[in-house]
Amino acid sequence: GAVVSQHPSWVICKSGTSVKIECRSLDFQATTMFWYRQFPKQSLMLMATSNEGSKATYEQGVEKDKFLINHASLTLSTLTVTSAHPEDSSFYICSAQNRLAGLTEQYFGPGTRLTVT
Amino acid sequence: AQSVTQLDSHVSVSEGTPVLLRCNYSSSYSPSLFWYVQHPNKGLQLLLKYTSAATLVKGINGFEAEFKKSETSFHLTKPSAHMSDAAEYFCVVSDTGGNMLTFGGGTRLMVKP
């Protein structure tokens, strides 16, 4: 149980284009989803927290107009990187949490590697 | 505020020898602590977690960690390393709601044959 998937697992896009990454909780309802970014050989940094049906809360320094997060259902959150640039190339990882069930643990997806050329 | 320090960025052991990955934390409340493993280009897999129950926590794949409040440590150990243990390991501290995870910098474990 508690499986989280991400799609795509990797994507290459050209500079200036937008790319959407999906995060799905496959066997539980994710009231809250988190998006992290990981640069090569570095740790994970929280980008934003989204609650189903609400606007995402972004961490300091993360551009909300560049990283659009939608959490329209209890099983799906999307991260759209708009007008991508090479510096946006990174490994993006989502996690999901079911607060309705009183569970605090975050379950992580397998990650999406974004390369912007 | 909370923080996590993984004392070694790289650890190299020989197959069959013990593993010790060190982690110190700071937190202004009773924390929850986790160890995650990440294989190359993969997501995070939970090894074990401490949530104020037994101070010695046993996880998957033979790993265990001991919560020592007096030392603010949560070191990860394994009696005998396998080649498959080679990966990046993250020590993580969480607030009581599990909403704010703070990651350590990671420790890359290398296992020599």
- Provide a count of the helices of chain B: 0
Question: What's the alpha carbon Rg of chain A, rounded to whole Å?
Answer: 13 Å
Shape of chain B: globular
First-residue to last-residue Cα separation of chain B: 41 Å
Strands of chain A, count = 11
What is the H/E order of chain B?
Answer: EEEEEEEEEEEE
Unreliable segments of 5+ consecutive residues of chain A: none
- Strand-residue fraction of chain B? over 45%
Major beta-sheet overview of chain A: 7 strands, mixed
Helical/strand content category of chain B: mainly beta
How many beta-strand elements of chain B?
12
Backbone CA Rg of chain B? 13 Å
Biggest beta sheet summary of chain B: 6 strands, mixed
Strand residue percentage of chain A: over 45%
Please give the oligomerization state of what you see: heterodimer
Shape of chain A: globular
Unreliable parts of chain B: none
Residues in helices of chain A, as a percent range: under 10%
Which chain pair has the greatest contact?
A-B, 23 and 21 residues
Could you give the topology of this structure?
The complex is a heterodimer of chains A (117) and B (113).
Chain A: E1 4-7, E2 10-13, E3 19-25, E4 32-38, E5 44-51, E6 57-58, E7 67-73, E8 76-81, E9 90-97, E10 107-108, E11 112-116
Parallel strand pairs in A: 2-11
Antiparallel strand pairs in A: 1-3, 3-8, 4-5, 4-9, 5-6, 7-8, 9-10, 9-11
Chain B: E1 2-6, E2 10-14, E3 19-21, E4 23-27, E5 32-38, E6 44-50, E7 56-58, E8 64-68, E9 73-78, E10 87-94, E11 101-103, E12 107-112
Parallel strand pairs in B: 2-12
Antiparallel strand pairs in B: 1-4, 3-9, 5-6, 5-10, 7-8, 8-9, 10-11, 10-12
Structure description:
The complex is a heterodimer of chains A (117) and B (113). With 117 residues, chain A is mainly beta. Helix content of chain A is 0%, strand content 51%. In chain A, 35% of the residues are buried. With 113 residues, chain B is mostly beta strands. Helix content of chain B is 0%, strand content 56%. Chain B starts with a strand and ends with a strand. The model of chain B has no long low-confidence stretch (mean pLDDT 91). Chains A and B meet through strand 5 and strand 9 of A and strand 6 of B.
